[in-house]
């Protein structure tokens, strides 16, 4: 019996030396340490040993078992740590990505616009999107039957209630509730009866600006729009004002910025003109002051609009306005 | 409006290239949107002479020609029936590409070789369609470049956006007047040398105006013995360039004068004017009329009608009638030139849904003083081009003459509004270039400028003429200290940022949605429908942000992007007490669907469920520092499943809802996956925002954790147990969490097991075992007795 123990011990030691993989190690475990393994069978043979030797033999078998076990564990550990530190580990597998929340590009651009105007001394006002004819047209010097109503195709709820076609009604609401000096911007959603295509959306976003005080001139309007252009797109961007017509401003202007892609040199995007139309502006028409009870002799003011969607399209080189409202994750995830 | 560059030169001499002119016009308020060249460049095509022309031996329809150029003679096969010996023709040599893309190659047709091609006008891109080859004038010399020869006829058509305040500029002379002003040249108005017959017009026509408020002036001339035929080429070309289709000489002349002077004219066949009499009156109730376009129209109230002694013959200022139009049989023309009240024309045109070149001008305001000039100029052309005999004089009914307006204009006010330093002399010069006299502080406005009514209108004219570029830019402005951030706007931005932190992407969706998406039975009580929607897909205003976000969900699902977390902050719209505009609160809404986290290479992911949306809502509430919020079962939401919805309450106020979107709602737009959502009223969140938050200290002493599990009735609300544990344990209970929930055979039917982990902690001392054990037993007793619960050992 003792011979047999010695032999198994020898054999196990030899085999342990040769082991290089965990698979081989597992085969060894089955052979010696499992319930039907060699060492277990030694224990079952113990009952055949004469009684006075049984204690010693038993001790030897126990010794053998614990030796093999500890060698096994040692080897198991070393095989495992090999695996962890050497070539089995690929540090270049992709990391586990969390979901990443992002603001919509129009929010990002609007926040930037708000910040620029806040620094220029403006504060934010808000107004309803469902408006009355009075605020959207009448008070802005656009009476019924006025040809200027044709300039904007309006979506109506009832004859007198409509979806605002511009953010200009906020001008009226602010002037009705506050006295000059006023310097506000009013961002918000506006609606037109346009069929959607790459450059039209039936709803889009404007920022209205209004400044009223004594001694405000067209030169101030040029100053503030120029400052905005420089802060938004860079100080090399030039601004140009062209005469235009809006019933609620007089004089009225359209203003253009140098094309932000070619910086005014002329390119395909600006059709080689070097300019991009931004929006309209002008000096508040005395009839508008009259509608809100301001003294148009004492106060002058300017108002301007700008399209947030348009500015975002310029800023990011987006060529289809519909992308903003489809909310395709491949789009939203780029901002 | 389409304006020809060459035609403008009839009225003003200017030395500007088309590009320079376009730029100048744009900078004084006439935006040139496009310049269209009438001649587009083509490759080298030369004049060739056909030396001989014989039938192709093997093809009946083909000819074999010898085309002579100065250096050589080419054999060419031509298929055109009009080819003849001796003609000058445009010749394309081998190697040339034509505008239609055809490249000329050496060819062999039925055994005969061909070296080049004889072209038609169509093939050179000069006309839409031509029959046969283009036979060139004899005086063109052989070898000459055809394109260069044509350059003389090159014209540039400007597409100009005329703003609605400038009816005077809706004509060639109007635009020329502006050009004359900025180029400091004279405006050349065409001279009219009328040769009139002895017979007076008044013998053939009389005019009666019953409603002068609709038609302050109506004048007519009579032209006899006209010969109706096609207009001469020069006139047809000019009309075509301006986008007007030539019809016959008489109709074309009225259109030509409209384009030249802006004044709309109408030619009647005098034969159909009964009783030789024109009566101008308002239409009566339900009156009907058949216009030139053969449509019977019901006339709106107070439409200006032109009638003869018996019947109506035209809708004044809008469109003529079928019963009196000029035809090829017309002999005597009654020519109308009138001034209509802009308000009446605008109203009738809108109500009729009929907008014409005439109505667009009258509704903006024509020149009441320009009526006779246009009539005489047209009569003159009718005698020149149709051989007509002009009866002497005109019949002109103009009772209350519209006088020139006088406006006070202060030089210092100009400078105050513009921020300039313009002198009186400069003002006089600028205004006189526009036909406005400025004397002693008063400007006299010509009647062709109805837009100039007030001092500020003159200020605009000054600004326009000096150009806005020359108004100095102010570089500083005063800032008022009381200007401050808008709290609401700041709060809404804050809300958005919190959702971004919770890993939501911000979406913006259409506020107009299809009514069809709303499944609710009572929808008509609160929905805001759009009266003139763009389509059925956008026929109501959104009463919730959920439908719009669901549309974005399906959009992404259809593009294989299944893991979605979107939120939107925007207004919603509902009708309350029949008021459409009163209630437009901002809502904030999130939707989730797909996996709980991004899939990766060694971990499985679960699909989102109710507890994901609940966790997000709880985190949001935590992040925006809302306290005293309760969740209450809610089973009658429009969009949420009645078994998986909680309302979010604070006292009596409902702040919002969250849960699983109803299957029937998802089926409406073919979403198969489960979608979970929350929607808060952001206005309410703003109203109850917590602005006085104070720092709260935390305990320095260690805590003790104890776990326990109860078997409870399935109906028991776990939140009540948590609250009961906290109450029973008192101030030493720092937190209570659920760490395991299960149901199964071994705990009995209708029962569930919930395991809680209670954290005990004191702010004053390290807790002793006995103390905690005492509280622990108290909690167990309380829960067992209150909820018929059994502690699991």
Detailed description of the structure:
The complex is a heterodimer of chains A (335) and B (793). With 335 residues, chain A is an alpha+beta fold. Chain A has 12 helices and 9 strands. A 7-stranded mixed beta sheet of chain A has the order 1-4-5-9-8-7-6, with helices on both faces. A two-stranded antiparallel ribbon of chain A has the order 2-3. The two termini of chain A are 78 Å apart. Chain B is α+β, with helices and mostly antiparallel strands. The longest helix of chain B is centred in the C-terminal third of the chain and has 19 residues, at 769-787. Chain B starts with a strand and ends with a strand. The mean pLDDT of chain B is 93. At the A-B interface, helix 5, strand 1, strand 2, strand 4 and strand 5 of A face helix 7, helix 10, helix 12, helix 13 and strand 27 of B.
Tell me the layout of helices and strands.
The complex is a heterodimer of chains A (335) and B (793).
Chain A: H1 2-18, H2 22-32, H3 38-45, H4 51-85, H5 105-119, E1 123-124, E2 130-132, H6 133-136, E3 161-163, H7 169-177, E4 182-191, E5 203-213, H8 218-233, E6 239-246, E7 249-258, E8 275-284, H9 286-292, E9 300-307, H10 308-316, H11 323-326, H12 329-332
Helix pairs in contact in A: 1-4, 2-4, 5-10
Chain B: E1 2-4, H1 5-8, H2 18-27, E2 31-37, E3 46-56, E4 59-68, E5 73-78, E6 88-92, E7 107-109, E8 112-114, E9 117-118, H3 146-150, E10 156-161, H4 172-183, E11 196-200, E12 206-209, E13 217-224, H5 233-241, H6 249-261, E14 265-269, E15 277-282, E16 288-290, E17 296-298, E18 304-307, E19 312-315, E20 319-320, E21 333-339, H7 342-352, H8 357-362, H9 371-386, E22 389-392, E23 395-398, E24 405-408, H10 411-418, H11 424-433, E25 437-439, E26 442-445, H12 455-466, H13 487-501, E27 505-506, E28 512-513, H14 523-526, E29 528-529, E30 540-541, H15 546-557, E31 564-571, E32 574-576, E33 579-583, E34 586-593, H16 610-623, E35 630-633, E36 640-650, E37 653-661, H17 663-668, E38 676-681, H18 682-687, E39 704-713, H19 718-729, E40 733-742, E41 751-760, H20 769-787, E42 790-792
Parallel strand pairs in B: 11-22, 12-15, 27-31
Antiparallel strand pairs in B: 1-10, 2-10, 3-4, 3-6, 4-5, 6-9, 7-8, 13-21, 13-22, 13-23, 14-21, 15-18, 16-17, 18-19, 19-20, 24-26, 25-26, 28-30, 29-30, 31-34, 32-33, 34-38, 35-36, 36-37, 37-38, 39-41, 39-42, 40-41
Helix pairs in contact in B: 5-6, 6-9, 10-12, 19-20
């Amino acid at each position: 019996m003792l011979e047999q123990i010695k032999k198994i011990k020898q054999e196990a030691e030899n085999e342990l030396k040769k082991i290089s993989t965990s698979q081989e190690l597992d085969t060894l475990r089955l052979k010696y340490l499992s319930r039907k393994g060699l060492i277990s069978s030694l224990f079952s043979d113990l009952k055949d040993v004469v009684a006075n030797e049984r204690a010693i033999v038993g001790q030897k078998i126990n010794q053998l078992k614990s030796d093999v076990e500890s060698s096994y564990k040692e080897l198991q550990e070393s095989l495992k740590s090999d695996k962890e530190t050497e070539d089995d580990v690929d540090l270049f597998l992709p990391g586990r990505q969390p979901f990443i929340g992002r603001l919509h590009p129009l929010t990002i651009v609007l926040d930037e616009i708000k910040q620029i105007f806040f620094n220029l001394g403006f504060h934010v006002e808000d107004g309803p999107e469902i408006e009355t004819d009075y605020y959207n047209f009448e008070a802005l010097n656009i009476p019924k039957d006025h040809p200027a109503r044709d300039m904007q195709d309006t979506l109506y709820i009832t004859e007198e209630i409509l979806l605002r076609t511009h953010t200009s009604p906020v001008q009226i609401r602010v002037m009705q509730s506050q006295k000059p000096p006023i310097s506000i911007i009013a961002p918000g959603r506006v609606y037109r009866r346009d069929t959607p295509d790459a450059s039209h959306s039936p709803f889009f976003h404007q920022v209205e600006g209004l400044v009223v005080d004594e001694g405000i001139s067209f030169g101030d309007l040029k100053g503030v729009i120029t400052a905005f252009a420089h802060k938004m797109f860079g100080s090399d961007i030039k601004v140009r004002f062209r005469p235009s017509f809006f019933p609620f401003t007089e004089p009225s202007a359209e203003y253009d910025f140098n094309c932000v892609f070619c910086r005014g040199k002329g390119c395909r995007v600006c059709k080689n003109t070097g300019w991009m139309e931004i929006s309209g502006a002008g000096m508040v028409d005395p009839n508008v002051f009259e509608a809100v009870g301001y003294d148009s002799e004492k106060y002058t003011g300017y108002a301007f609009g700008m399209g947030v969607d348009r500015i975002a399209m310029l800023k990011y080189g987006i060529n289809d306005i519909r992308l903003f409202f489809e909310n395709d994750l491949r789009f939203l995830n780029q901002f | 409006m389409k304006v020809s560059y060459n035609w403008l030169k009839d009225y003003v001499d200017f030395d500007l290239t088309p590009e320079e002119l376009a730029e100048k016009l744009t900078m004084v308020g006439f935006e040139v949107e496009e310049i269209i060249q009438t001649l587009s460049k083509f490759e080298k095509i030369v004049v060739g002479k056909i030396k001989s022309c014989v039938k192709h031996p093997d093809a009946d329809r083909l000819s074999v020609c010898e085309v002579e150029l100065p250096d050589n003679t080419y054999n060419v096969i031509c298929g055109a029936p009009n080819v003849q010996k001796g003609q000058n023709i445009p010749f394309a040599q081998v190697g040339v590409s034509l505008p239609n893309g055809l490249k000329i190659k050496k060819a062999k047709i039925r055994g005969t070789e061909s070296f080049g091609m004889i072209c038609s006008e169509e093939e050179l891109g000069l006309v839409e369609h031509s029959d046969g080859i283009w036979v060139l004038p004899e005086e063109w010399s052989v070898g000459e470049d055809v394109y260069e020869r044509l350059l003389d006829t090159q014209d540039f058509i400007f597409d100009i956006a005329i703003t609605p305040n400038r009816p005077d500029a809706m004509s060639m002379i109007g635009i020329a007047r502006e050009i004359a002003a900025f180029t400091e040249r004279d405006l050349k108005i065409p001279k009219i040398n009328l040769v009139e017959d002895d017979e007076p017009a008044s013998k053939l026509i009389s005019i009666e105006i019953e409603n002068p408020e609709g038609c302050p002036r109506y004048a007519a001339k009579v032209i006899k013995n006209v010969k109706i035929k096609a207009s001469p080429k020069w006139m047809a070309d000019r009309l075509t360039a301006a986008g007007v289709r030539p019809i016959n000489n008489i109709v074309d002349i009225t259109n030509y004068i409209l384009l030249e002077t802006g004044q709309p004219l109408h030619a009647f066949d005098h034969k159909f004017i009964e009783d030789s009499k024109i009566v101008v009156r308002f239409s009566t109730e339900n009156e009907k009329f058949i216009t030139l376009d053969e449509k019977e129209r019901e006339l709106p109230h107070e439409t200006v009608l032109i009638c003869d002694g018996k019947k109506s013959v035209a809708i004044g200022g809008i469109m003529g009638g079928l019963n009196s139009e000029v035809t090829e049989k017309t002999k005597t023309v009654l020519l109308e030139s009138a001034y209509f009240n802009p308000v009446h024309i605008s109203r009738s045109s809108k109500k009729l849904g009929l907008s014409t070149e005439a109505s667009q001008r009258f509704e903006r305001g024509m020149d009441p003083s320009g009526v006779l000039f246009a009539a005489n100029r047209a009569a003159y052309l009718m005698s020149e081009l149709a051989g007509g005999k002009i009866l002497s004089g005109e019949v002109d009914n103009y009772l209350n003459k519209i006088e020139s307006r006088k406006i006070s204009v202060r030089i210092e006010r100009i400078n105050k509004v513009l921020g300039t330093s313009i002198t009186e002399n400069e003002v006089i010069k600028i205004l006189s270039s526009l036909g406005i006299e400025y004397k002693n502080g008063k400007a006299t406005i010509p009647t062709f400028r109805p837009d100039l009514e007030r001092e500020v209108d003159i200020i605009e004219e000054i600004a326009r003429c000096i150009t806005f570029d020359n108004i100095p830019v102010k570089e500083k402005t005063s800032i008022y200290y009381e200007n401050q951030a808008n709290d609401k706007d700041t709060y809404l931005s804050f809300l958005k940022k919190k959702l971004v932190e919770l890993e939501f992407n911000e979406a913006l969706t259409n506020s107009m949605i299809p009514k069809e998406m709303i499944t609710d039975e009572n929808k008509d009580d609160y929905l805001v429908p759009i009266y003139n929607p763009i389509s059925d897909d956008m026929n109501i205003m959104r009463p919730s942000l959920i439908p719009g976000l669901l549309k974005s969900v399906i959009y992404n699902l259809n593009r294989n992007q299944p893991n979605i977390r979107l939120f939107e902050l925007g207004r919603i719209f509902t009708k309350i007490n029949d008021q459409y505009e009163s209630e437009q609160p901002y809502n904030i809404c999130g939707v989730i669907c797909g996996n709980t986290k991004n899939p990766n290479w060694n971990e499985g992911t679960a699909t989102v469920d109710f507890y994901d949306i609940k966790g997000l809502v709880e985190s949001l509430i935590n992040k925006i520092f809302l306290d005293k919020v309760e969740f209450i079962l809610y089973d009658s939401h429009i969009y949420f499943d009645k078994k998986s919805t909680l309302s979010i309450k604070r006292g009596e106020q409902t702040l919002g809802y969250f849960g699983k979107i109803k299957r029937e709602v998802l089926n409406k737009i073919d979403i198969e996956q489960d979608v979970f959502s929350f929607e808060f009223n952001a206005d309410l969140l703003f109203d109850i925002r917590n602005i006085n938050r104070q720092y709260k200290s935390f305990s320095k002493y260690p805590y003790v954790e104890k776990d326990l599990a109860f078997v409870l009735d399935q109906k028991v609300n776990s939140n009540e147990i948590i609250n009961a544990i906290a109450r029973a344990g008192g101030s030493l209970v720092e937190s209570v969490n659920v760490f395991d929930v299960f149901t199964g055979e071994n705990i009995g039917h209708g029962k569930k097991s919930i395991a809680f982990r209670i954290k005990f902690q004191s702010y004053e001392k390290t807790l002793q075992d006995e103390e905690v054990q005492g509280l622990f037993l108290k909690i167990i007793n309380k829960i067992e007795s209150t909820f018929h619960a059994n502690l699991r050992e």
